[in-house]
Amino acid sequence: MNWQTRLRPDVEAIYREVYEQGLHYQEITAPFADDPLLKPADGRRPLSIAVEGGAFGDEGKGRIVDELCTRLSLRHGKVLVYRWNGGANAGHTVIVDSIKIALHQLPSGVLTENATVILGKGMVLHPGDLLTEIDQVVRRLGKLYAKLHIDETAVLALDTHRAFEKALTAWESGGKGATGRGISPAYADVLLRHPVRMRDLTAEDWQDRLGKHYDLYESWLRGIGSPLAEVIVPTLEKSDTPLLVGSKRDFLDRLGEQRARLLPYVSDVHDLLVSAWSDVNVPVVFEGAQAVGLDPRFGMYPDVTASDPTFSGILHSTEGVVFPHEIAVRAGAIKATYSSSVGTRKPPTAMDAALAKRIRDDAHEYGATTGRPRDIVHIDIPCLRYYAHVSSMTHLILTHMDICYTDVPVQVCTHYTVDDQPADYRPDQPFLDRVTPRYLNLPSWNGKAVEDKCKISDLPAPALQYIGFLSRALDVQPIFATTGAARDALISWLPALWD
Ligand code: IMP
Fold first, then answer.
1. Among 10, 24, 35, 58, which one carries the catalytic annotation?
2. Which of 183, 257, 272, 425 gives 382 a disulfide partner, CB atoms 3.0 to 4.6 angstroms apart?
3. Which domains are delineated in the chain?
4. Is 66 a catalytic site residue?
């Protein structure tokens, strides 16, 4: 797609080519003749892949990364996993040998033997929750399989930030709708040029540095009528006694214990990264958190996060060691037949309530921690294509291929109009409130019949046609599709790793 057709491709023409003339889709849905990981396009580094959320988060990318890391490690004896953004706001469950493991700050690659895992500079880390998570993994698997490194320049997201976010929420201002993990206050500290980083915690004079940080937050919170010491903050470890931020001494005592345990993991990871990225025998997997639809500039504002969940975040987090356009595969995950999200946002492609409920129940679309029902909407090509383009996505991961019904067509929005004139997606709710989505009804398939299938050839023609259509409309190549919750319910277009 060139620059002229990038913004408004003729999706109805793509529909006619794929569905009426049967053109292209067989090529698109066939396994790659040249494995893009082993023989990437010119100038890209072999054996490198980055995975981002292509919609609004919770697309199910964690289990794909887990499976990918396992296969890469088995085949190549090692794998480097790099997490570039977010913190304790992320959450996904991975099942290893029937053991369920919930991950937040650790990427799913941490469950892979022989993996080296880096928590990058672009992350915001809560030391207490991170240690709880490490302990949980060790308790469940017997040990930490991967070698863990934390970039000393990663930013801290502490109980002070959680308290501040809570106070803002009470004021119904910027904290509204956040996960309560202090994510945006921690990133805001960077812009205000007073962040506390991992190396402040590992420094000899850490009590001075973190003490000053406490004092600043204490005075801010006092200013808005919310004494810091008395604020109850969330913790990963459930406890009957709520955790108060407490006095400066309490705060520093907690951090002191955590510091002692984190010291062995914290270092300057720059040389490690340079040497791994320069050695084409080391497979490198970049694992993102959240999704493009939550990006503060491109997402559906104001339900956005503060980090850079797009591939460009890799450039910042690695301090320019890795250029996103050099990564062989930049894959974005979306749900195949619908999108879901929680928030105040009103996506234009609202769905009939009965169908939304059916999907919500079948796909368990309820918030993992809150149990809140997620909003379910039709596939919105103008929006998803925008997300694919602004994040420089090259490949597509389609999850939940089993959520499809023979008695209901797959309804997709091909374009928007405003006052009968064509209109584009823009990350601005008042604008989106004015657009009229225009739809096509596409042939559906029996979701139950594709459940747990793991070969491209197991998919019925309408499912393949749909994958061909969507890939062309979003201008990306399919690389994985999932057909159920089980680990093996995964179809791959990568012949070398999945033969
Ligand atoms: P924050 O990241 O805690 O600041 O939350 C900002 C917005 O992003 C809220 O609407 C959250 O629900 C959403 N959000 C943050 N992380 C995730 C995620 O991992 N999945 C889905 N939504 C998320």
1. 58
2. 425
3. 3-152+268-498 (3.40.440.10), 155-266 (1.10.300.10)
4. no
